[in-house]
Amino acid sequence: MGNLLISEPPLQVLPSLAVKVGLNEAIILQQFHYWLQRSNNCHDGYRWIYNSFPEWNKQFPFWGLNTLKRAVTSLEKDGYLITANYNKAGFDKTKWYRINYDKLGMGRPSTQNGSTSNPEWVDGMDQNGSTNTNRLPETTTETNKNHSPAEAEQFPWESIIDYLNLKTGKHFRHTPTNKRAIIARHKEGATAEDMRLVIDNQCALWLNDPKMNRYLQPSTLFRASKFEGYLNQVPINGGQGGESYDGIDY
C-alpha cells in the first residue's frame, strides 16, 4: 500500500492553472511546459515539441487515449496550445506544439536553453524551489549526448522500427536485438530525427537497388561503425538504383 504514496516523482500542477483551464488540461500544459523548457527545436522564434498521441499517453498512463485527445483538443480550441507542422516528410502529419504563454498572462520564455522570463512556472515550482521530476522523454531533437541509462531506456525506439517499415515496406519486429542497436546509438547522442534521416538517406540510395535493398535493416543502419557515415550521406542519383552506393564493405 505504501507504494501508492509518493514512492515515485509526482506530476505537479498549480491549482490556479487548473481553475483557469481545467484539471486535465492543466496537467498537460505543465508537462508540455516542462518539455518546452528542454527542447532544442526552434522554429520562427519559438520552441516546439512533438509526439504522437500513443507516445504522449505513456506520460499520462492514468488516462485513456481518448481522454488525452479530448484534453489536448480542448487546449488547442481554446488557444492555449498552438500547433504547426515542421516535419521533413510530407506524409508525416505529427503535430508540433507550443504553449500560447500570452493567453496565460505570461511573458514569452526565452528560446535559449536554461533561461525563462517566468522562472516560477518551471515544473510548477517557484524559482527557489526544488524539483522532483522523472518524466518520459518526447521525441524531439536533443543535443545532449549524456543520456542516463534510465533516459535511454525510455527512448521511443519502436517508432524508429515502425518508420523503417513504413519507408521500406518491410516488417521488422520490435525485438530486443533491434532495440539494442537503436538504444546504443541514442546513448551516443543520436536523436529520433537523426535515425529517421539515416533511414531516409539510405532508402534514397538502396531502396530500388536489388543488390543493396537487403541492407535496409536495423543491424546495418544502426551499426556503430556505420551510423555516422549514413547520417552524413548524400544520396547519389536520387536513389534510382544501379551503382548508387559508396562502396563501403557492408
UniProtKB/TrEMBL annotation:
It holds the Pfam family Phg_2220_C. Residues 107-152 are annotated as: Disordered. Residues 160-232 form the Phage conserved hypothetical protein C-terminal domain. Residues 109-119, 127-143 have a biased composition (Polar residues). This is Phage conserved hypothetical protein C-terminal domain-containing protein.
